[in-house]
Design brief:
Blueprint lengths: L12 E5 L3 H13 L4 E6 L5 H7 L4 E3 H5 L9 E12 L3 E12 L1 H14 L3 E4 L2 E7 L2 E6 L4 E4 L1 E4 L6 H7 L5 E11 L6 E5 L9 E6 L2 E7 L11 E9 L6 E2 L2 E3 L15 H16 L4 H8 L7 H10 L3 H8 L8 H10 L4 H13 L2
Parallel strand pairs: 1-2, 1-10, 2-6, 4-12, 10-17
Antiparallel strand pairs: 3-5, 4-5, 7-8, 8-9, 11-14, 11-15, 12-13, 13-14, 16-17
Helix pairs in contact: 1-4, 1-6, 6-7, 8-11
The structure holds flavin-adenine dinucleotide (FAD).
The site of flavin-adenine dinucleotide has 40 residues, from helix 1, strand 2, strand 3, strand 11 and strand 15.
């Protein structure tokens, strides 16, 4: 509830639903920008289940993606990534230099929450069960029967978002169900690997180092499960961004808004970025500006979805032909030549080029 302008009274109240990358960042950026706001971060998982849920990820992110957080992330680095190796049909293997990290995601999220708490933010362990809009603000009802009425509500509650369902209704997004396995490590510790094939239906198989172990994954049912997995994860990655991100004082961020990059499926950087944008917009008391900012950002470039749609429609021979010009590696000169010689793949080339910079 808004409380006038007294020096010790909060300027505004906000509830952030979900303490994943999007919600933790939204809560922290709001508190950083407006110290006298009352911010409640509501997370359904207890301290035991929370790390397990957030480990179900490749945990790979570019260094640029982490720099946005403005915290000391060094102690959460598990592997330093300096190369991507792509394997394409026709025996084409392409290696590219990268600057990225495999992070201890639960540790990093806890650090964001710790700073949030130290700035006076409140973390509530509770499950959002229902929402309604009243004359006094947005009322969140939790499963334990308690309620909370706030000026703003941020839906950062992941791919199966209740906020999206209750407030924003049907949305035209694709849920890419994936399976991921943790294996005893082998393979390079400084490289992330991608295997492209028509069997992955527009996606790919990935192999990411994780300390001494390796995580491999692919769209659900497109490849055989390894027999010797230490753990198995099943989760959906939503892509295709919802049409509306803001309705009155309510907004969606991260997977709730299907903001993962459609070509790379990278959702950490986009979730952190959208959370940061939403937190700042609330601090300006102009939530609508978050939607404009997101839509005009390079993360929301429609080229990524176009690239994904093209890959979905390609068979192995077309995949091979499209990357043939890059057999000896990606360079600007080869990209220009490829665009001139194979204009039908122009959008695909552009989407891969953009994804190197903004896709993870
Ligand atoms: C197998 C797999 C591997 C991936 N690998 C990578 C990768 O290597 N790099 C990358 O960039 N992206 C990766 N992604 C994508 C990335 O994990 C997601 O895009 C990212 O987690 C989105 O963050 P989020 O905060 O929006 O949602 P989430 O991380 O899902 O967080 C949502 C939070 O909301 C809480 N919550 C949900 N409902 C409620 C409720 N009703 N009440 C209260 N709290 C609630 C949840 O418990 C959770 O803590 C991967 C995804 C998958 C499935």
């Amino acid at each position: 509830m808004r409380n006038g302008g007294g020096a010790n009274l909060p300027r505004l109240e906000a509830a952030i639903i979900g303490a994943g990358p999007a919600g933790a960042m939204a809560a922290l950026s709001l508190k950083r920008s407006m110290p006298n706001s009352n911010v409640h971060l509501i997370e359904r998982l207890d301290e035991g289940k929370y790390p397990r849920y957030h480990k179900m990820c490749g945990e790979g992110i570019s260094r640029k993606g982490l720099e946005l957080l403005d915290i000391d992330y060094d102690k959460f680095v598990v592997n330093r990534i300096s190369r991507a190796i792509e394997h394409w049909p026709g025996g084409i293997d392409i290696e590219t230099a990268l600057d990225g990290l495999i992070i201890d995601r639960p540790g990093l999220l806890n650090a964001l929450m710790e700073e949030f708490r130290s700035r006076g933010g409140e973390i509530i362990r509770g499950n959002l069960h229902d929402i309604d809009i009243t004359r006094k603000g947005v009322r969140s009802k939790l499963s334990d029967g308690s309620t909370l009425t706030t000026d703003y509500l941020v839906g950062a509650d992941g791919s199966r978002s209740l906020v999206r369902e209750k407030i924003f209704g049907e949305q035209d997004i694709d849920l890419i169900w994936t399976e991921q396995y943790v294996l005893k490590g082998n393979g390079p510790r400084d490289a992330i690997e991608f295997f492209y094939d028509e069997r992955y239906k527009g996606g790919y198989r990935w192999s990411f180092p994780n300390g001494e172990n390796t995580r491999i994954g692919f769209p659900k049912g497109t490849d055989a499960a390894p027999g010797d997995a230490l753990e198995m994860h099943r989760r959906a990655i939503p892509i295709g961004t919802v049409k509306r991100l803001v309705l009155g004082g309510i907004c969606l961020v991260g997977d709730a808004a299907a903001q993962a990059n459609p070509l790379t499926f990278g959702g950490l950087r986009t979730a952190f970025t959208a959370g940061w944008m939403a937190g700042e917009a609330i601090a300006r008391e102009d939530l609508g500006s978050y939607q404009d900012l997101w839509r005009s950002s390079p993360y929301a470039d429609p080229i990524f979805k176009r690239g994904y749609d093209m890959i979905c429609a390609m068979d192995n021979e077309q995949l091979r032909v499209s990357v043939e010009p890059f057999r000896k590696g990606y360079t600007g000169a080869r990209a220009t030549l490829a665009m001139l010689r194979q204009p039908k793949y122009l959008q695909l080339y552009r989407s891969f080029e953009r994804s190197m910079e903004f896709g993870w």
